[in-house]
Amino acid sequence: MDLNDVIIKPLITEKSTRQQQLGNTYSFRVRSEATKPQIKQAVEKIYDVKVTDVRTLVRKGKPKRTRTRIVHTGEWKRAIVTLAEDSKIELF
Fold first, then answer.
1. Which of 3, 44, 52, 54 has the greatest number of beta carbons closer than 10 A?
2. What's the pLDDT band for 31 if we cut at 50, 70, 90?
3. Rounded to two decimals, what is the model's pTM?
């Protein structure tokens, strides 16, 4: 897998913005097959920063009701990346 394909998009939420300010931690939506070392290499290459820690979690799909039945949206993987103190990512 190419490192440019690992990260799908950064997650901009209230919680992730607070984590950026307090703990120098950023959240990304990543491919479900991506491993922690691949995520670390991709963030370091794309944003030119030093990564100290990577945590991942899989978000389960939510149930959605259609006209005739209940379907589930797809699962997706989230990566929470902590940077070194002297590193920073400008998302805006």
1. 54
2. very high
3. 0.86
